[in-house]
Amino acid sequence: MEASLVIFTFILLSLAAICFYRWSERNLLSFSFSLLTFLLAVWCALLTLSEIPFPKSVQTFLVNIIPIPVIYIPILLTYIIFNYTRPHSLIWPPSLFNAFHVITILFFSWFAFKGIVGPYQMKDGLKVFHPGPLYYAACAYIYISIFACAAVLARNIFKGNYFVRLHSIYLFTGVMLGGVVSAVFVIVLPLYGISLRFMAVLGILVFLWFAWIPITKYRLFDIELADFKCDLRSPRLSSAIVSVNRYLLNTLDPKAFKELCDQFEVKRQNEIYALQAEMLLEVHYGKEGGVSDHVSKYAKKVSNLFLS
Q: Where is each Histidine kinase N-terminal 7TM region domain found (predicted)?
Protein backbone atom coordinates (compact mmCIF):
# COMPACT_ATOMS: atom_id res chain seq x y z
CA MET A 1 0.00 0.00 0.00
CA GLU A 2 2.76 2.42 0.96
CA ALA A 3 4.71 1.62 -2.21
CA SER A 4 1.63 2.40 -4.32
CA LEU A 5 1.20 5.76 -2.58
CA VAL A 6 4.86 6.59 -3.16
CA ILE A 7 4.50 5.77 -6.87
CA PHE A 8 1.35 7.91 -7.04
CA THR A 9 3.18 10.80 -5.38
CA PHE A 10 6.08 10.39 -7.82
CA ILE A 11 3.71 10.56 -10.81
CA LEU A 12 1.92 13.58 -9.33
CA LEU A 13 5.17 15.44 -8.78
CA SER A 14 6.52 14.56 -12.23
CA LEU A 15 3.37 15.89 -13.90
CA ALA A 16 3.54 19.04 -11.76
CA ALA A 17 7.16 19.61 -12.80
CA ILE A 18 6.17 19.36 -16.47
CA CYS A 19 3.25 21.76 -15.96
CA PHE A 20 5.38 24.28 -14.06
CA TYR A 21 7.86 24.50 -16.91
CA ARG A 22 5.57 24.13 -19.91
CA TRP A 23 3.05 26.80 -18.87
CA SER A 24 5.54 29.37 -17.68
CA GLU A 25 7.95 32.02 -18.92
CA ARG A 26 10.67 29.33 -19.05
CA ASN A 27 13.20 31.51 -17.28
CA LEU A 28 15.45 30.60 -14.34
CA LEU A 29 12.69 31.33 -11.86
CA SER A 30 10.30 28.91 -13.56
CA PHE A 31 13.12 26.41 -13.97
CA SER A 32 13.80 26.54 -10.22
CA PHE A 33 10.19 25.54 -9.55
CA SER A 34 10.39 22.70 -12.02
CA LEU A 35 13.75 21.54 -10.66
CA LEU A 36 12.52 21.66 -7.07
CA THR A 37 9.49 19.58 -8.00
CA PHE A 38 11.60 17.16 -10.03
CA LEU A 39 14.00 16.63 -7.11
CA LEU A 40 11.06 15.78 -4.88
CA ALA A 41 9.91 13.30 -7.51
CA VAL A 42 13.41 11.78 -7.51
CA TRP A 43 13.19 11.51 -3.72
CA CYS A 44 9.96 9.52 -4.06
CA ALA A 45 11.55 7.36 -6.75
CA LEU A 46 14.47 6.56 -4.44
CA LEU A 47 12.04 5.58 -1.68
CA THR A 48 10.40 3.14 -4.09
CA LEU A 49 13.61 1.76 -5.62
CA SER A 50 15.14 1.17 -2.20
CA GLU A 51 12.32 -1.30 -1.46
CA ILE A 52 13.25 -3.50 -4.42
CA PRO A 53 15.51 -6.45 -3.47
CA PHE A 54 18.53 -5.43 -5.53
CA PRO A 55 21.96 -6.79 -4.63
CA LYS A 56 22.93 -5.62 -1.14
CA SER A 57 25.49 -3.07 -2.34
CA VAL A 58 23.01 -1.48 -4.77
CA GLN A 59 20.19 -1.36 -2.24
CA THR A 60 22.48 0.11 0.41
CA PHE A 61 23.59 2.79 -2.06
CA LEU A 62 19.96 3.69 -2.87
CA VAL A 63 19.06 3.90 0.81
CA ASN A 64 22.06 6.13 1.55
CA ILE A 65 21.34 8.68 -1.19
CA ILE A 66 17.63 9.11 -0.32
CA PRO A 67 18.20 12.46 1.48
CA ILE A 68 20.34 14.05 -1.25
CA PRO A 69 17.54 15.42 -3.50
CA VAL A 70 15.76 17.28 -0.67
CA ILE A 71 18.99 18.88 0.55
CA TYR A 72 18.74 21.21 -2.48
CA ILE A 73 15.42 22.67 -1.32
CA PRO A 74 16.93 25.57 0.70
CA ILE A 75 19.13 26.95 -2.10
CA LEU A 76 16.30 26.77 -4.63
CA LEU A 77 13.84 28.32 -2.18
CA THR A 78 16.31 31.12 -1.45
CA TYR A 79 16.56 31.90 -5.17
CA ILE A 80 12.76 31.95 -5.43
CA ILE A 81 12.38 34.33 -2.48
CA PHE A 82 14.93 36.75 -3.94
CA ASN A 83 13.14 36.86 -7.30
CA TYR A 84 9.43 36.28 -6.78
CA THR A 85 8.61 39.96 -7.26
CA ARG A 86 10.96 40.53 -10.21
CA PRO A 87 10.09 37.94 -12.89
CA HIS A 88 11.62 40.11 -15.64
CA SER A 89 14.83 41.14 -13.85
CA LEU A 90 16.12 38.07 -12.05
CA ILE A 91 19.12 38.38 -9.74
CA TRP A 92 21.36 35.94 -7.90
CA PRO A 93 21.23 35.90 -4.10
CA PRO A 94 24.28 37.39 -2.33
CA SER A 95 27.46 35.36 -2.63
CA LEU A 96 27.47 34.68 1.11
CA PHE A 97 24.11 32.90 0.87
CA ASN A 98 25.20 30.90 -2.15
CA ALA A 99 28.49 29.89 -0.54
CA PHE A 100 26.75 28.79 2.65
CA HIS A 101 24.21 26.66 0.78
CA VAL A 102 26.78 25.10 -1.56
CA ILE A 103 29.10 24.17 1.32
CA THR A 104 26.20 22.74 3.32
CA ILE A 105 24.92 20.74 0.34
CA LEU A 106 28.37 19.29 -0.32
CA PHE A 107 28.81 18.48 3.38
CA PHE A 108 25.54 16.58 3.75
CA SER A 109 25.85 14.93 0.33
CA TRP A 110 29.32 13.60 1.16
CA PHE A 111 28.17 12.08 4.43
CA ALA A 112 24.95 10.83 2.83
CA PHE A 113 27.06 8.49 0.70
CA LYS A 114 28.54 7.19 3.94
CA GLY A 115 25.05 6.42 5.24
CA ILE A 116 24.89 8.78 8.21
CA VAL A 117 22.45 11.42 6.93
CA GLY A 118 19.42 9.44 5.78
CA PRO A 119 16.46 8.24 7.85
CA TYR A 120 16.91 4.57 6.90
CA GLN A 121 19.59 1.94 7.37
CA MET A 122 20.01 -1.56 5.94
CA LYS A 123 19.92 -4.24 8.64
CA ASP A 124 19.79 -7.96 7.89
CA GLY A 125 18.78 -7.21 4.30
CA LEU A 126 15.84 -5.00 5.34
CA LYS A 127 15.37 -1.25 5.15
CA VAL A 128 14.51 -0.01 8.63
CA PHE A 129 13.95 3.43 10.09
CA HIS A 130 17.13 4.29 11.95
CA PRO A 131 18.17 7.95 11.53
CA GLY A 132 21.85 8.55 10.97
CA PRO A 133 23.85 10.86 13.27
CA LEU A 134 23.40 13.80 10.87
CA TYR A 135 19.74 13.17 9.99
CA TYR A 136 18.25 15.73 12.35
CA ALA A 137 21.01 18.22 11.52
CA ALA A 138 20.00 17.98 7.85
CA CYS A 139 16.33 18.40 8.84
CA ALA A 140 17.28 21.47 10.89
CA TYR A 141 19.12 22.98 7.91
CA ILE A 142 16.13 22.45 5.62
CA TYR A 143 13.42 23.66 8.01
CA ILE A 144 15.35 26.62 9.41
CA SER A 145 15.85 27.76 5.80
CA ILE A 146 12.16 27.27 5.02
CA PHE A 147 10.92 29.20 8.04
CA ALA A 148 13.54 31.93 7.56
CA CYS A 149 12.12 32.45 4.07
CA ALA A 150 8.63 32.50 5.60
CA ALA A 151 9.76 35.26 7.98
CA VAL A 152 10.98 37.34 5.02
CA LEU A 153 7.64 36.85 3.29
CA ALA A 154 5.72 37.81 6.45
CA ARG A 155 7.71 41.05 6.60
CA ASN A 156 6.98 41.82 2.95
CA ILE A 157 3.24 41.41 3.51
CA PHE A 158 3.27 44.60 5.56
CA LYS A 159 5.65 46.67 3.45
CA GLY A 160 6.19 47.48 -0.20
CA ASN A 161 3.69 48.10 -2.97
CA TYR A 162 0.55 46.06 -3.53
CA PHE A 163 2.28 43.85 -6.13
CA VAL A 164 4.84 42.71 -3.53
CA ARG A 165 2.27 42.34 -0.75
CA LEU A 166 -0.12 40.20 -2.78
CA HIS A 167 2.67 37.91 -3.94
CA SER A 168 3.95 37.63 -0.39
CA ILE A 169 0.54 36.51 0.91
CA TYR A 170 0.38 33.63 -1.55
CA LEU A 171 3.97 32.57 -0.99
CA PHE A 172 3.78 32.87 2.80
CA THR A 173 0.66 30.70 2.85
CA GLY A 174 2.32 28.12 0.64
CA VAL A 175 5.61 28.07 2.55
CA MET A 176 3.92 27.74 5.93
CA LEU A 177 1.58 25.00 4.72
CA GLY A 178 4.43 23.15 3.05
CA GLY A 179 6.76 23.56 6.01
CA VAL A 180 4.30 22.61 8.73
CA VAL A 181 2.72 19.67 6.90
CA SER A 182 6.06 18.21 5.82
CA ALA A 183 7.51 18.70 9.33
CA VAL A 184 4.68 16.63 10.77
CA PHE A 185 5.43 13.72 8.42
CA VAL A 186 9.23 13.99 8.53
CA ILE A 187 9.91 14.75 12.20
CA VAL A 188 6.83 14.38 14.43
CA LEU A 189 5.17 11.16 13.22
CA PRO A 190 8.43 9.11 13.07
CA LEU A 191 8.88 9.81 16.78
CA TYR A 192 5.71 7.76 17.30
CA GLY A 193 6.81 4.98 14.97
CA ILE A 194 4.71 6.16 12.00
CA SER A 195 6.67 6.32 8.75
CA LEU A 196 4.92 8.32 6.02
CA ARG A 197 7.74 10.60 4.89
CA PHE A 198 6.74 10.53 1.26
CA MET A 199 3.56 12.38 2.26
CA ALA A 200 5.72 15.34 3.24
CA VAL A 201 6.21 16.22 -0.42
CA LEU A 202 2.48 16.80 -0.74
CA GLY A 203 2.82 19.66 1.72
CA ILE A 204 5.68 21.12 -0.29
CA LEU A 205 3.66 20.61 -3.48
CA VAL A 206 1.04 22.94 -1.98
CA PHE A 207 3.74 25.59 -1.65
CA LEU A 208 4.81 25.06 -5.26
CA TRP A 209 1.29 25.55 -6.62
CA PHE A 210 0.68 28.60 -4.41
CA ALA A 211 3.97 30.08 -5.62
CA TRP A 212 3.70 29.13 -9.27
CA ILE A 213 0.38 30.93 -9.83
CA PRO A 214 1.41 34.43 -8.70
CA ILE A 215 4.88 34.30 -10.20
CA THR A 216 4.21 32.72 -13.58
CA LYS A 217 0.78 34.31 -14.00
CA TYR A 218 1.96 37.70 -12.74
CA ARG A 219 -0.49 39.51 -15.04
CA LEU A 220 -3.17 38.52 -12.55
CA PHE A 221 -1.37 40.63 -9.95
CA ASP A 222 -0.70 43.82 -11.87
CA ILE A 223 -2.07 44.27 -15.41
CA GLU A 224 -5.37 42.39 -15.12
CA LEU A 225 -5.80 43.53 -11.52
CA ALA A 226 -6.28 47.10 -12.77
CA ASP A 227 -8.47 46.09 -15.72
CA PHE A 228 -12.06 45.84 -14.50
CA LYS A 229 -13.50 44.69 -17.83
CA CYS A 230 -15.83 41.72 -17.51
CA ASP A 231 -15.65 38.74 -19.87
CA LEU A 232 -19.15 37.25 -19.79
CA ARG A 233 -18.76 34.90 -22.76
CA SER A 234 -15.55 33.12 -21.73
CA PRO A 235 -15.46 32.50 -17.96
CA ARG A 236 -11.94 31.74 -16.73
CA LEU A 237 -10.51 30.45 -13.49
CA SER A 238 -8.07 33.35 -13.56
CA SER A 239 -11.02 35.73 -13.12
CA ALA A 240 -11.65 34.21 -9.70
CA ILE A 241 -7.99 34.70 -8.77
CA VAL A 242 -8.16 38.34 -9.88
CA SER A 243 -11.30 38.84 -7.75
CA VAL A 244 -9.54 37.35 -4.72
CA ASN A 245 -6.54 39.61 -5.34
CA ARG A 246 -8.77 42.69 -5.48
CA TYR A 247 -10.43 41.69 -2.23
CA LEU A 248 -7.04 41.19 -0.56
CA LEU A 249 -5.76 44.50 -1.90
CA ASN A 250 -8.87 46.35 -0.70
CA THR A 251 -8.41 44.77 2.73
CA LEU A 252 -4.66 45.37 3.01
CA ASP A 253 -4.41 48.75 1.30
CA PRO A 254 -7.77 50.47 0.62
CA LYS A 255 -5.96 53.59 -0.59
CA ALA A 256 -4.05 51.69 -3.30
CA PHE A 257 -7.23 49.89 -4.36
CA LYS A 258 -9.11 53.21 -4.59
CA GLU A 259 -6.31 54.60 -6.78
CA LEU A 260 -6.66 51.61 -9.14
CA CYS A 261 -10.41 52.17 -9.36
CA ASP A 262 -9.96 55.90 -9.95
CA GLN A 263 -7.42 55.27 -12.71
CA PHE A 264 -9.79 52.85 -14.42
CA GLU A 265 -12.73 55.28 -14.16
CA VAL A 266 -10.73 58.24 -15.48
CA LYS A 267 -9.38 56.17 -18.37
CA ARG A 268 -12.85 54.98 -19.34
CA GLN A 269 -14.34 58.48 -19.03
CA ASN A 270 -11.73 59.85 -21.42
CA GLU A 271 -12.42 57.02 -23.86
CA ILE A 272 -16.18 57.66 -23.67
CA TYR A 273 -15.66 61.39 -24.29
CA ALA A 274 -13.57 60.52 -27.35
CA LEU A 275 -16.32 58.20 -28.62
CA GLN A 276 -18.93 60.92 -28.09
CA ALA A 277 -16.89 63.36 -30.14
CA GLU A 278 -16.43 60.72 -32.83
CA MET A 279 -20.17 60.03 -32.94
CA LEU A 280 -21.06 63.73 -33.19
CA LEU A 281 -18.65 64.18 -36.08
CA GLU A 282 -20.06 61.13 -37.87
CA VAL A 283 -23.66 62.32 -37.35
CA HIS A 284 -22.85 65.81 -38.56
CA TYR A 285 -20.59 64.97 -41.49
CA GLY A 286 -21.43 61.36 -42.23
CA LYS A 287 -23.38 60.55 -45.36
CA GLU A 288 -24.32 56.97 -44.50
CA GLY A 289 -26.89 55.91 -41.91
CA GLY A 290 -29.21 57.91 -39.70
CA VAL A 291 -28.86 59.13 -36.14
CA SER A 292 -30.22 55.86 -34.72
CA ASP A 293 -27.55 53.89 -36.60
CA HIS A 294 -24.78 56.06 -35.19
CA VAL A 295 -26.22 55.85 -31.66
CA SER A 296 -26.39 52.04 -31.92
CA LYS A 297 -22.81 51.91 -33.13
CA TYR A 298 -21.74 54.24 -30.32
CA ALA A 299 -23.55 52.15 -27.68
CA LYS A 300 -21.77 49.02 -28.87
CA LYS A 301 -18.37 50.71 -28.62
CA VAL A 302 -19.16 51.90 -25.09
CA SER A 303 -20.22 48.38 -24.08
CA ASN A 304 -16.93 47.03 -25.42
CA LEU A 305 -15.09 49.31 -23.01
CA PHE A 306 -16.55 47.40 -20.06
CA LEU A 307 -17.19 43.94 -21.50
CA SER A 308 -14.54 41.77 -23.14
A: 6-223
